[in-house]
Amino acid sequence: MSTNLILYYNSDTGAGAVGLLDSQGNHATLKDYGDFTTGWSHVVQASNGILFYNTNTGAGVIGKVDAAGNFSTVKAYSDFAKNWSHIVNLPHDYILFYNTNTGAANAVKVDAAGKLSAGKVYNNFSTGWSHIVNTSNGIFFYNTNTGAGATGRLDATGNFSTVKVYNNFSTGWSHIVNTSNGIFFYNIDTGAGAVGAIDTSGGLSTSKVYNNFSTGWSHIVNTSNGILFYNSTTGAGAVGTMDAAHNFFTLKGYGVGSFSTWTNIASESAGQQYSRPRVLPGTVQWSLTRLSAGKVDFNGGGILAKSDGTWQFWGSLYDNSTLYGDKWALGFVFDSTGHGAIARGELGAQLTGGARNGTFDISGQDPWISANWESVALSTVYTTLHVQDDWGGLIETVAGFLSKYGPQFVALVGSIL
Fold this sequence. Notes:
By secondary structure, the protein is mainly beta. The protein is about 5% helix and about 50% strand. The chain contains three helices and 33 strands. The termini are far apart.
């Protein structure tokens, strides 16, 4: 795709478009599309095509756009790993896949035919990076919540090395975009901006600070003819440019409704660009519906989790047995994480044992929930109820069932097993 072309995509509708920016900031739409697959979470320009990826399904497509804006699919994939949070175009035809929750990363090569070759697997990246940006002098990592940062380099064989580590950047940058004249930082809430550069030794220095950008730009994309600012809520836009001294100039503004609604925007020279970080609630609660196992009915309950790591799991049960009561265990997990809790108890029958009605309420505080709050807050929860004679076998059965939603079942801190 030419360096002044821009690909627009709407993940919800499958709509797409290809636009062109000239050196005066004028934007023209070359092609409109209404038949892209929906659900792509990432659209990234790589050295040999445009990668579309669905983080929930692991599906992917590599396509190309010619100078006239015509899009063609080169190769489709169905076997990517799920849950990559970042995909970044890197030197030497590599693409980096990164999971901010686990620190897992994988660098693969893409050839001109859209074929991916086996690359490098990394298990030692720090967790929590919100931004990863490729620049001419290295790869920049940044955590918008803590202000931590790092620079690194990737060689031609895919080996990664850390060059510098920082702990003193400003927090709150929502967008970081590489341009030919420096790295542009922007805060969507305040309108603050800054420009910096990475030198040949991997050091990053800030040369300009701005406090007068408009707030609300959801996407910022660099092209060879300027930087496009776009607001997905209003459809407004602007085009600016930056000189070698890092002075910013606005070339053209576009009013409300000038652009359609887009979830992803990619360009040849955009590097890694980001839309606004998801605003998450501090507390999430799931209501649980009825379950039955043997003669035991689970009559409903709930799960609550908070961003500080606090969690709670509660409910009520009833045993329909006549002669003998039952030992029961009820467990849940957050989506595909494997993390959850198991409650257990014993109920009486109509003629023997204790009460036929029972309740439970267990809770705790687990640092894993806080560290992985986005995954938890957006999770579906899966539950299972089992009845068995011996406690050991019962807990093992429930944990075994829940382990299919992750590499293994991991009991939350505070669980009573």
